[in-house]
Structure formats: structure tokens, C-alpha cells
């Protein structure tokens, strides 16, 4: 009730505004102090908000940097894995090619060995014939 008559006809003087945080009446000097406290609180809150924003931006920058570094490392690892896979594939092809050529060489050597055995048999069969021919020829076969 402000500035009006009460129920008994008494005039009521104007009451100071009540602060939501205070439970009693405040004097004008206290009101000025409270207003000053509010301003300081608002300033402090603004400083805290500004600092919080700076911290948030710092974390955002940090996470962005970490994300970029992780992405770069991952891409690098993936690229290396593709490179290793390609190199492994080429190495496998080279090994298979070398093994195939090695098998051909071994098979050719075995065939040549069998043919040489056949030639040895032929030479053994021809030796008596050559020896008898040599007896009829007056010159040495080594000179031919």
C-alpha cells in the first residue's frame, strides 16, 4: 500500500522499495549501496561472460586443431596403408613371377639332365663304334 489511507483513516507514508534479496526495509544510503553492489555484480558477470566466451573460443580452437591433426594423421595413415597395400600387391606379383620362372628353370634343367643321360647312353653306345673308326683313320680326331 503506497501513499493512501489505511483502513482506520491513518495516512501511510511511502515505503522504500523492497529488494528481492533483502527481507527488511532499506534506508536511502543502503539503497545506493545496493545499487552500487548491483552494478559491480553486473560488471563482474560481464567479465565472467567475456572470460567464459574467451575460454569457449580457446577450447573451440583447440578442438578444431586436434580434429585437424587427427584427420591429418588418419589420412596419412590411410594413405600409408593404401601405399603398403599396393607395394605388397606388387611384391606378391613379383614373387609369383619369380617362382614361376624358377619352376621353369628347374623343369628345363631336369629335362636337360634327362637328355644328357640319353646322350651319355648314346655316347656309350657310340664309343666302340668310334674307336673302331679311329683305327681305320690315320689322323687324330682331335685335330678336326
TrEMBL record:
Listed Basic and acidic residues bias regions: 1-11
Protein name: BLOC-1-related complex subunit 6 C-terminal helix domain-containing protein
Membrane spanning stretches: none
Domain of life: Eukaryota
InterPro entries named among the record's database cross-references: BORCS6_C (IPR046465)
PANTHER family: BLOC-1-RELATED COMPLEX SUBUNIT 6 C-TERMINAL HELIX DOMAIN-CONTAINING PROTEIN, OS07G0483400 PROTEIN
Domain BLOC-1-related complex subunit 6 C-terminal helix per the UniProt entry, residue ranges: 43-126
Chain positions covered by the region annotation Disordered: 1-32
